[in-house]
TrEMBL record:
Gene: metF
Protein name: Methylenetetrahydrofolate reductase
Pathway noted in the entry: One-carbon metabolism; tetrahydrofolate interconversion
GO CC annotation, single: cytosol
Pfam family, one: MTHFR
Catalytic activity entry: (6S)-5-methyl-5,6,7,8-tetrahydrofolate + NAD(+) = (6R)-5,10-methylene-5,6,7,8-tetrahydrofolate + NADH + H(+)
CDD domains named in the record: MTHFR
Cofactor(s) required for function per UniProt: FAD
Family: Belongs to the methylenetetrahydrofolate reductase family.
Alphabetic keyword roster: FAD, Flavoprotein, Oxidoreductase
Keyword Nucleotide-binding annotated: no
Biological process annotations from GO: methionine biosynthetic process; tetrahydrofolate interconversion
Amino acid sequence: MRKVELLPAHQGLVRSVEVWPARNEAQSDRLSALLTAMKTVQPDFITVTYGAMGSSRERTLTLIEDLIEEGFAVVAHLACLGHSRSELVDLIHRYQTLGVRGILALRGDPPLDGVVEFAASELHYANELVELVRQESDLPVAVALHPDGHPDSTDTASDIQYAAQKLEHADLGLTQFFFEYASFAGLREAMLGQGVKVPIVPGLMVPATHKQLMKMSQIAGLDPPTSFDGVALSGDGDTSAFQSLALDAAVALAKRAIADGVRGIHLFSMNNARVTTEFFARLQVTASA
């Protein structure tokens, strides 16, 4: 039996937030503001994104150390692409020594510009990394799921089969963000149809601008929504009005998921302190209504 649970059965709704390490001074200011806000939000755990290469990896490790020192529970991202098996083992041991709450095991994605080659990779799929984490630690393991299908999937049937294979050996599934509730509901139903009962937590995003929505949708391999709650979206118009619509849409998705019995809500914060604070303030009202 594992000593730590990511979704304790005795606890109410578990709230988690994804953050990423800062790359420059402006991003550092945003991250600092977010971490200050987190002291009020008090998420149950924070996930920290990970870059397999060089300084990005060190920024991740430094941020994890800082968060743990501040008293936050951390679930660390770990991607298998770009690493040898021995490097992954070293990182798993280092994470455990740092005191992380768990690991989000990912395949990882090559850079969009294709410059970096992943010749060092010895593990090529997330389920292989899940097995390695099990072998090398007693940490709980989460995996990423894609309600609208994995970007590299060739057909729905194989995508469902692979997602079930990945999830059945994990403790928790965290989804990529989605914009239509039917996508999330369909994923849960498909996993139950495969006999997998591991908890699945919806990941939600509140884009701050239309440009950010388009960019993140492209990265995730999703078709961006053309409207929120019937209101057409475009790159023109009032940014604050767009943010309000995006927040309403994310809260509505969270509300439906809570009504359907999910045990947690995960927010892709985009390192945005105001949005993160407002989302969870709204969610608190929703959860207790």
